Amino acid sequence: LPPLLSSVIKGPSLLPIIQADTPHEAVAIAKAMQDGGIGSVEVVLRTRQALAAITAIRTALPDLLVGAGTVLSANDAKACKNAGAQFLVSPASTPTLLEAMINTGLPLAPGVATPSEVALAYEFGLRELKLFPAHLSGGIEMLKALSGVFQQVKFCPTGGVSQTNLAQFLALPNVFVAGGSWMSPSVMVKAQQWHQITALAADATAIANTTKS
Ligand code: 3PG
């Protein structure tokens, strides 16, 4: 199995999402986040230039850990590795997708939303998973319920995580990192409000460093 994602995460226990239309925009967002204390980012495969964005951030900001999110297929997993992604995140888990992600050798956090999906990933030997969509699948109470039965599994909640509930999520012993898009609202990206993104990242970093360290 690849190394655990928790063993490679840099900086605070946060995985902010970067959704960028161009590599240039991606680097600007990543730089703004890094200026706020972020050490690891997830570039989502939801724009045409997402792979180029991963490569651009790796080159421009070598101290950041850069992963790929919204990995949906075996081809996505391979393409992300070739683009320089240092870890893989998916919103869902199927046997085919899990196998392909594991075969890249990259740390991974495949998405789950039910006990059966946790059990599927568990059968593959995986012990770090993404809970998605975290809020809609039960949020804090869901994570507490999962901790009782899957005692060795840790989660990255994403989907509905925000500045207001971040501390509650990170305080859970079975949460190793929290992710989401709240640090780079698309309105701020469009308006190139990099200082505001840095401020949101700094707020989240402060919460993460007091809750988990
Ligand atoms: C993801 O890809 O993890 C989600 O889109 C994050 O959800 P959010 O936008 O509610 O943070």
Automatic annotation (TrEMBL):
Similarity field: Belongs to the KHG/KDPG aldolase family.
Protein name per the record: Bifunctional 4-hydroxy-2-oxoglutarate aldolase/2-dehydro-3-deoxy-phosphogluconate aldolase
Gene3D superfamilies: Aldolase class I
Biological or metabolic pathway of the protein: Carbohydrate acid metabolism
UniProtKB keywords: Carbohydrate metabolism, Lyase
Gene: eda
GO MF annotations, alphabetized: (R,S)-4-hydroxy-2-oxoglutarate aldolase activity; 2-dehydro-3-deoxy-phosphogluconate aldolase activity
This enzyme's EC code(s): 4.1.2.14, 4.1.3.16
CDD domains reported in the protein's UniProt record: KDPG_aldolase (cd00452)
PANTHER family in alphabetical order: 2-DEHYDRO-3-DEOXY-6-PHOSPHOGALACTONATE ALDOLASE-RELATED, 2-KETO-3-DEOXY-6-PHOSPHOGLUCONATE ALDOLASE
Keyword Lyase: yes
Organism (species): Rheinheimera baltica
Subunit and interaction comment: Homotrimer.
One Pfam family recorded for the sequence: Aldolase
InterPro entries noted in UniProt: Aldlse_KDPG_KHG, Aldolase_TIM, KDPG/KHG_AS_2
Organism domain of life: Bacteria
